[in-house]
Design a protein that fits this description.
The chain contains 12 helices and 10 strands. It has 380 residues and is of the alpha/beta class. The N and C termini lie far apart (46 Å). It binds adenosine-5'-diphosphate (ADP) and magnesium ion (MG).
Length: 380
Amino acid sequence: MASRKTPAGDGAAAGNPGARRISGTARPKAAAEGKGPAAGETRDPAAPGPAAAPAAETKAPDGPAGSRAAPGANGTGEAKRPGGKSARKGERKLKQIAVYGKGGIGKSTTTSNLSAALADMGYRVMQFGCDPKADSTNTLRDGTYIPTILELLREKGRVEAREAIFEGYNGIYCVEAGGPSPGVGCAGRGIITAVQLLKQQNIYDELDLDYVIYDVLGDVVCGGFAVPIREGIAQHVFTVSSSDFMAIYAANNLFRGIQKYSNAGGALLGGVIANSVSSGYQRAIVDDFVKQTGTQVMQYVPRSITVTQSELGGKTTIEAAPDSDQAKVYRELAKRVEAHEISTVPKPLDAQDLRAWAAKWSDQILAVERGEVRSAGAQI
Ligand code: ADP
Ligand code: MG
C-alpha cells in the first residue's frame, strides 16, 4: 500500500474518485514499528473484571457439542505476532469474526473501532461490510465510501478481489459487499457473492491476515445474511445489543440461527457487546438476558458524545480521540476479542418465554432503577 487513506487517491475506484485500492501487502503502522502484542498476553474473557459478564458455560475445545475452539486456538497463551505465522506450525492463525445486530444498533461503529484498535495492536485486519447500506468502513476512511463488490460486478462483469479492497486507517483492508439495486433481488446476495469471490481468489492467505471482521445486518432473516454463520466462515459471532427490547429480540433471533447451524459446523457465539448501555437498569437487563441465554457480555460500551463527534469528523473514536475514555473501552474490547478462543451454542428463548421475560422487566425496571431491588442477573 502506498499510503494511508488518501483523499486525492488514484481515482481508479468506480464512482469514488477518492478511493485508493490496495496494491501490496503492507503491514499496519504499529506492526511496522514492532508494536505488536506482547508474548503470552492472553486473557480469559470470562474472568471477573470490570466488564466481565456472568461466565458462559464453556467446555473444552474438543469436548462435547456445545463449544468449539477457533481453528488455530492452541490455548497455550502464545501470542500471535503481527503479520507473523501462528505460534504453532501448521495451525491457522486467521481469526474470522462476525458482528451481528439490528440495524442502527452500532455494529459498524463498534466494528470499525474494534478493527482500528486491533490494527493499532499490530494485527493485519480486514473489515468486511455485509450490510446493503455499504457504510461499514467509512469511518476508517475519513468518511469516504468505497465501491461495493456488487457494484463492481454490475459495472465490469468480472472483478479481481484486489480491485474491491481499499486501504483504511492504519492499513486496515476495507471491503463492502453491497446489495442489489433497490427493489430488485435478494439483499443477502451481496454477501454470498462477495464471500465467494474473496474465498475463490484466496485473498485472505495472500494478505496474510490475522482478522477478518464481518459487519452483518442482523434483523433480516434471509439466507444470505446467515452466510458467515452457516458456511462456517466465521469462527466466532458477537452480537451488538442495547437493552432495548427490539435489539434483544434481534439478538435472540440470531441465537436461534446460530443454534440451528451449530451441528453443521456453523459459527458459534462469543458473546454480546452491550452498546449504549450506560445506566444501571440497562446493564441489569442485558446481564439478565445473557444469563437466560447462556452467554456473556464481552464489553459494556457506553453511549458517548465522543463517538458522535468522531463520526461527524468521518473517523473512528480510536483515530479521532485515542486518549478518550471511550477509546479505552474499545481497546479493552479488542483485548477481549484477541483473548477469546472458545465460543458456545447459545440457548435462545422461545417466543413465549421472551415475552414473559420482557413482561417481568416491565414490572421491575423502575424498582431496579431506583435501587430498590437488584435483578438476579445484574452485575451492578
Ligand atoms: P449499525 O451499523 O448497527 O446500523 P451504526 O454503527 O451505523 O449502526 O450506528 C448508528 C448510529 O449510532 C451512528 O450515528 C453512531 O454514531 C451511533 N452510535 C453507535 N454507538 C454509539 C455509542 N456508543 N455512542 C454514541 N453514538 C453511538
Ligand atoms: Mg452498519
